[in-house]
Amino acid sequence: MSMQWLEHVKWTEDGLVPVIAQEVGTNKVLMFAWMNREALRLTAETQQAVYWSRSRGRLWHKGEESGHVQKVHEIRLDCDEDVILIQVEQVGGIACHTGRHNCFFQKLEQEHWIVDQAVIKNPEDIYHHE
Amino acid sequence: MSMQWLEHVKWTEDGLVPVIAQEVGTNKVLMFAWMNREALRLTAETQQAVYWSRSRGRLWHKGEESGHVQKVHEIRLDCDEDVILIQVEQVGGIACHTGRHNCFFQKLEQEHWIVDQAVIKNPEDIYHHE
């Protein structure tokens, strides 16, 4: 009943919805991922981004391992009601698993993809706590 | 040969890639759509956004009917090489087929989707030229 807003989302056949995460303040696009119904519900409830990991086949609380959680400021739905846009504060300033600020660090220049963002933190230092 | 950069993109089984269109300057996310190989090639070549319309099953030169073309300033690829981010200048200032600036005009507030963007131009005036 109180979850009626979830009914408005047009889920894919697999029960997912594409999600764009954008940084509050800079408006930079941090990453793109997917949510299922439970992930979106938890995202709204906890105000932290929870995605559905298609590769791992499970809920993925962003930052669960790295500590780089995303505090959710806003949740938006598009005109066709099949895409979600969230405004987040990126804790640690690193959204990408490569240790970069965001995932879109390859830019097309004269028919080549050029990396134009530095690695802020070595992924080994992010994911292997000792 | 010169199209080698297209090989780096990991296309879906349907030969598509999700695309986020972001406005140059404001960094606002305008819309989300899909491209196939030909659409991405044309986007890069013409510097105007060309998508693949899944509903119509054909190439869709954004603005072909409305005049609201998107001039492409930048094309980016994400870490997994399966999502494209383009920076565009939105001609006419209207990206959404509802006549709004962008497609993400529904905001979640206390379990309700609230429309918080005005219609700039009536869709009937955009799409029915007399």
UniProtKB/TrEMBL annotation, chains A, B:
Q: Where does this protein act, in terms of pathway?
A: Amino-acid biosynthesis; L-histidine biosynthesis; L-histidine from 5-phospho-alpha-D-ribose 1-diphosphate: step 3/9
Which family, according to the similarity comment? Belongs to the PRA-CH family.
What name does the UniProt record give this protein? Phosphoribosyl-AMP cyclohydrolase
- Pfam families documented for this protein: PRA-CH
Q: What is its main location?
A: cytoplasm
| Subcellular localization | Cytoplasm
Detail which positions bind Mg(2+). Answer: D78, D80, D82
**Residues annotated as domain Phosphoribosyl-AMP cyclohydrolase:** 31-105
Q: Which transformation does this protein catalyse, written as a reaction?
A: 1-(5-phospho-beta-D-ribosyl)-5'-AMP + H2O = 1-(5-phospho-beta-D-ribosyl)-5-[(5-phospho-beta-D-ribosylamino)methylideneamino]imidazole-4-carboxamide
The residues the record assigns to binding Zn(2+) are C79, C96, C103
Q: Which SUPFAM superfamilies match?
A: HisI-like
- HAMAP family associated with the record: HisI
Give any GO molecular function from the UniProt entry.
phosphoribosyl-AMP cyclohydrolase activity
Description of how the protein assembles with itself and partners: Homodimer.
Cofactor field: Zn(2+); Mg(2+)
Q: What does this protein do?
A: Catalyzes the hydrolysis of the adenine ring of phosphoribosyl-AMP.
Q: Which Gene3D superfamilies match?
A: Phosphoribosyl-AMP cyclohydrolase
Quote the EC number: 3.5.4.19
- Return the cofactor note field: Binds 1 zinc ion per subunit.
From the broadest rank down, the organism's phylogenetic lineage runs: Bacteria, Pseudomonadati, Pseudomonadota, Betaproteobacteria, Nitrosomonadales
